[in-house]
Amino acid sequence: MAKNIQAIRGMHDVLPEQSPLWHFLEDRVRQVLDSYGYREMRTPILEMTDLFKRSIGEVTDIVEKEMYTFEDRNGDSLTLRPEGTASCVRAGIEHGLLYNQVQRIWYRGPMFRHERPQKGRYRQFHQIGAEAYGLSGPDIDLEIILLTRRFWQQLGLDGVELQINTLGTSEERKAYRGVLVEYLNGHKEQLDEDSLRRLDGNPLRILDSKNPDMKQIIADAPSLMDHLGEESQAHFESVCKGLDDTGVAYVINPRLVRGLDYYARTVFEWVTDRLGAQGTVCAGGRYDGLVEQLGGKPSPAIGFAMGVERLIALLEEDRERLELKQPDAYLVLMGDEAQRQGMLLAEKLRDQMPWLQLITHCGGGSFKSQFKKADRSGARYALVLGEDELSRGIIGIKPLREDAEQQQRPIDQLADFFNREL
Ligand code: ATP
Ligand code: MG
Questions:
Q1: 83 is in an annotated binding site
Q2: Which domains does the chain have, with CATH numbers?
Q3: Buried-most residue among 20, 211, 232, 401 (CB within 10 A)?
Q4: 43 among the known binding-site residues?
Q5: Which residues lie with the beta carbon below 6 Å from any ligand 1 atom?
Q6: Could you read off the pLDDT of 299-318 as tens digits, one per residue?
Q7: Which atom number of ligand 1 is nearest to the Cα of residue 278?
Q8: Residue 201's closest CA among 370, 348, 57?
Q9: Residue 84, annotated as binding a ligand
């Protein structure tokens, strides 16, 4: 027999059992985004490969070795998006949304990176992210961080810690780069292969190395913080002051450089120690140069992206607390006439209560087997309709999640019952 085809390594199905968690997260997150006036933008999952080469940068993990790139039937080089910011900027420029305007935008969806799959690291994963364009001051940096804090509050997640840093302007980074390269050249024998390669092209990224052997040399490296100009310093101080004012606890992490090339000034990550090595659940920062780099008129920008799978893993730990939505009722139908009438009744109930989650039993079977299915469905009530109930115009209501007797009600009072009880 032929072997069953399986999902691609590192790409996962979200099963029905899991989707209530996803809905919980998506609903809460969307509510927060709405409450700050961010509007959703949806872009294609495929983009021209050059978009990512030009935005993320040629000397990055993503572009060097993680992209799903292929030629389509016309010979164009296309890439499954590895992140969302490049597409937002591309669409913003294309539709004239950015120049001289303030835009608050969010997006969500699957991203693709050919990484080594492990817990919290997949080849298809999901992000929800937001971007604010046209604002260069520290106030929007603060807003973005406050917005992300509200996510954790609304999701009931604690133990997520804010780390922030500033990368200065590109000129300041250039000056710092010289100092850093000098230092790293002095310790060449301790650099790993990746870092040696980056020494010329992109030395700052060496600070982002995940290799434990590199930890010490990175810790001892000169700090960009000591090479900032006055304006960058003031910008950063203002963000920190805003965080103090609003009671956001944070740690300044001078080694936080972020994986992508286009960041400037404020960068931040929300990190938890509950997920092992893959502890960053949200990462973002300012990227003032990118819009121009992609051919638009210059426009300041800041944004972040969250790893949905990592947040789901955190939520999963205390699934009980979330009181996820279960079906309200399961309609048990005994006999041919009850099956016919039951369908009509169920339709009527959904007319009256569009929010009601009602499963109608299909396929007949014994009372016992139907009741077992009602129980397994997670429904709060079983509704029982048989010949006897039909002839008397009543229906049985049996609570399934508490120890209580079955009661009987006139069928036409069911809506009253649910409106009161649910
Ligand atoms: P990491 O340092 O974990 O590789 P990154 O710097 O590559 O992350 P970003 O590109 O900034 O991450 O993406 C933002 C967030 O998306 C990350 O903080 C993480 O939560 C999530 N994320 C990134 N890559 C993956 C992946 N391969 N699988 C699952 N989640 C991911
Ligand atoms: Mg990465």
A1: yes
A2: 16-168+228-320 (3.30.930.10), 329-421 (3.40.50.800)
A3: 232
A4: no
A5: 83, 113, 115, 120-122, 125, 127, 259, 278, 280-283, 305, 307, 309-310
A6: 999 999 999 999 999 999 98
A7: 3
A8: 57
A9: yes
